[in-house]
Specification:
alpha+beta; globular; 4 domains; eight-stranded mixed β-sheet; about 20% helix; Rossmann fold; five-stranded mixed β-sheet; about 775 residues; 35 strands
Length: about 775
């Protein structure tokens, strides 16, 4: 019984903090100076994988050995991360070699008392103890990037990424793609290219030879997603297929935490119409939130598919419109090697890139047709900011229509329970390198910090990178300090573009339909990491109004003889505001977790995580946010004619749809706005007028401009004409004395310069 108790205490002491001093007294007996028991071994390196090694597995193993090394001979993981990002931008995938020996504590030594825990909670060994460790060897080569966008992949092994903590001398490295191929030698610092004939997961065999005659064989894998079937183009035009133009903003932006203002970079591609191939009717499509630039321009174009073999861009091009897709890729900052993840950079900096794109297209286009700008997701915020900034600074955007497509005008949501769990797994004792990119892109990026209504950084304990506050006053939704409120206040102060028609497409239901329900149990699952180590994870959605619940709990456990002992634990609680149920289940555009899983590689822990979720999605963009509803904080309130929104027209479904999903209904809406507007362009006077809602005894129309000779028609929702007048002048405020029954009506104002239709409500 004493032995069991000792082991339980030892385990608890060891795991209550990562890379602690519990093994320090064993260091002198270690021949390798790397004791694996100092870390939580997610890679299970004692059972080394040598076939189909992925970058995810390699980086996790490297991270564990780097932290377990008493001599700190390996660079920190950030060095590998930066090399991977730089290589991805340069289309040159870096390879890394790790040659290392390490030790793990022999379980027999703890059972027979050769290793014991002293009064200072540190392992000691008995004098003369010689068999207290098992020794293990690692000889691996792997790419640091999991995916390639080209089926022709260039690799490079730089000498500074050959890490060796042993006395073994590496004499040569060779590779082959197929087992019957000749071995080709890999020369350090010299790029080499492999062309794969297929997409998907590809395997490369490797051979490592040492000066002592030892030879080891292994293989690594890389995911090839080249888009071999490229988007079709009409070749009878002056624009070359796949001609992507790189653009640098002329307006710099300095974000919070930056030491200087920087010019953003982006890219665009013109897809001319298939009628005459002349750039004369531009429709801009502005990409949104995209960590790691997972969506190329080709994939963004393909994302406009809907129905059966239909594509919105293809159809618009057949009608004479020109599609301009704007993307924010990863890039290196000018005159530096600093890599910027453009798809999650500060929204303002990307907006200034869009300003430059609009200026360039306006300089190229023929004729006097005005632009259309469509902003899906965060692209809607970038577009809104850019258009309004141009108006406020006397820059001509020459735009008539702005379509916001499920954009977070009042913020976005990632469940706070997920944020706590992923951050704890990534940067807590586990040190999961597979989860770190999720946290860095989806949660810690500048754009995420600007948009997320509830952000983990608003809940962290002082001085901790992963433990949450538990005090009741700390549980309400809170944005990222210095990011969220500053951005939302700036956006609110700017307002919406004033000289264009602003319309919205929402993917969230307008009738109050929820995504699951408050306090829904998302996960209650035990992950068996090894036969003696496991993790228990509990997740729930945020609670009902004014209620508090536990949204996340993680427990790491070790099996000691006959029982499981909890070595470390972390949890997060949440409280919903008094005037609305929690964010996670509100009506809104859904975040599809099955689609998200496909982008995360082949990490077994993440695969098991997604396979055991009880929910397939969560609320990402509340309808309240995509419609920019003001006057209420109740995210669950149905959108009615009485709801206050800046959009003059909208498409809102009755069921919650996946975020930025095209349907027959919202495509019809978008086409009507784009095509009808092109046939009768509305002038600034019409787009800037507003009508008091709800209507009282009279209909009040207000305009800052003088409108002459207008025809005004009021119809009910069945199309019946209720009131009509011709040759009407509007200057300032016009009151129309018409008696209406309770209901919703449409008022159309038509002049020789265009027409506009608005909705009015009589309560």
């Amino acid at each position: 019984m004493k032995k069991i108790t000792l082991l339980m205490v030892c385990f608890f002491s060891l795991l209550t903090s990562a890379q602690n001093n519990s093994c320090d007294l064993l260091q002198e007996k270690s021949q390798t100076k790397i004791i694996y028991d100092r870390v939580f071994g997610l890679s299970n390196a004692t059972q080394l994988k040598q076939k189909e090694v992925s970058s995810t597995y390699f980086i996790q193993l490297y991270h564990e050995l780097q932290r377990a090394d008493f001599l700190a001979r390996l660079p920190k993981l950030e060095v590998l991360r930066e090399a991977a990002k730089l290589g991805a931008v340069r289309r040159e995938i870096p390879l890394c070699v790790l040659i290392s020996d390490f030790e793990s504590i022999n379980q027999n030594a703890t059972e027979n008392g050769d290793v014991f825990l002293n009064a200072n909670q540190q392992y000691e060994y008995k004098n003369g103890g010689e068999n207290i460790f098992h020794r293990h060897a690692v000889n691996l080569i792997s790419p640091l990037v999991f995916k390639s966008r080209s089926n022709t992949v260039t690799f490079i092994l730089k000498e500074e990424f050959v890490f060796n903590t042993t006395n073994r001398t590496l004499s040569s490295i060779a590779y082959q793609v197929k087992e019957d191929d000749q071995w080709s030698r890999i020369q350090q610092n010299q790029p080499f290219t492999i062309r794969f004939n297929e997409e998907g997961l590809q395997t490369v065999n490797c051979r490592l030879q040492f000066s002592n005659g030892e030879t080891t064989y292994q293989s690594f894998v890389i995911q090839v997603e080249s888009g071999l079937a490229t988007t079709a183009r009409d070749t009878q035009n002056t624009y070359a297929p796949n001609a992507i133009t790189t653009v640098t903003a002329t307006i710099p932006y300095q974000g919070f935490g930056e030491t200087a203002a920087y010019f953003g970079q982006g890219e665009y591609e013109i897809f001319p119409d298939t009628v005459d191939g002349i750039l004369d009717k531009p429709v801009f499509l502005v990409d949104g939130f995209d960590p790691g630039d997972a969506r190329s321009i080709a994939l963004t174009y393909a994302g406009l598919n809907y129905g059966t073999n239909q594509n919105l861009a293809d159809y618009l091009r057949s009608l004479g419109f020109d599609i301009v897709i704007v993307n924010f890729p990863n890039y290196t900052r000018l005159n530096s090697t600093t890599v910027v993840d453009g798809g999650v950079d500060f929204i303002q900096r990307n907006a200034f890139v869009l300003v430059e794109v609009i200026n360039q297209i306006n300089a190229q286009k023929v004729g006097n047709e005005k632009n259309v700008v469509i902003g899906p997701s965060m692209g809607g915020l970038i577009s809104r900011y850019a258009l309004r900034y141009m108006e406020m600074n006397n820059l001509d955007h020459d735009t008539r229509l702005y379509i916001s497509f499920d954009s977070p005008h009042q913020g976005a949501n990632v469940p706070i329970g997920f944020q706590h769990l992923f951050n704890y797994m990534a940067y807590g004792p586990l040190g999961s390198t597979a989860v770190q990119p999720v946290v860095d892109g989806l949660i810690k990026s500048p754009a995420a910090r600007q948009m997320l209504i509830d952000h983990m950084e608003g809940h962290l304990q002082s001085g901790s990178a992963f433990e949450f506050n538990t005090a009741t006053a700390s549980l309400l939704p809170t944005g990222a300090p210095n990011f969220r409120n500053a951005f939302q206040n700036e956006l609110n102060a700017m307002g919406f573009p004033a000289t264009v028609r602003n319309v919205s497409i929402a993917n969230g239901a307008g009738n109050g339909t929820m995504n699951y329900s408050p306090n829904f149990e998302v996960m209650n699952h035990t992950f068996n990491v090894t036969s003696t180590q496991r993790a228990i994870i509990n997740l729930r959605f945020t609670p009902a109004a004014n209620q508090t619940n536990q949204v996340s709990r993680f427990r790491g456990q070790q099996y000691v003889f006959i029982t499981w002992v909890t070595g470390f634990e972390s949890l997060a609680n949440s409280k919903a505001p008094a005037d609305t149920d929690g964010l996670d289940s509100a009506p809104g555009g859904r975040f599809d977790m099955s689609g998200f899983q496909a982008d995360l590689g082949t990490d077994p822990l993440l695969t098991e995580f997604f396979n055991n979720l009880n929910a397939d999605y969560f609320t990402f963009i509340p309808t309240w946010s995509s419609m920019a509803i003001s006057g209420t904080n109740n995210l669950y309130a149905p959108v009615t004619g009485a709801s206050t929104t800046p959009f003059v027209a909208s498409s809102i479904p009755t069921v919650n749809e996946n975020h930025v999903t095209l349907t027959s209904n919202n495509v019809t809406f978008a086409l009507n706005e784009i095509i009808s507007g092109a046939l009768a362009t509305t002038d600034q006077a019409l787009t800037s007028l507003w009508i008091k809602n709800p209507v009282e005894k009279t209909i009040e129309i207000n305009s800052s401009y003088s409108i002459e000779n207008a025809a005004i028609t009021i119809t009910d929702m069945l199309g019946k004409t209720i009131y009509t007048v011709n040759h009407q002048n509007i200057n300032g405020t016009l009151e129309i004395p018409v008696s209406l029954m309770k209901g919703i009506y449409l008022i159309n104002i038509n002049t020789e310069n265009g027409s506009i239709t608005k909705k009015i409500i009589k309560n």
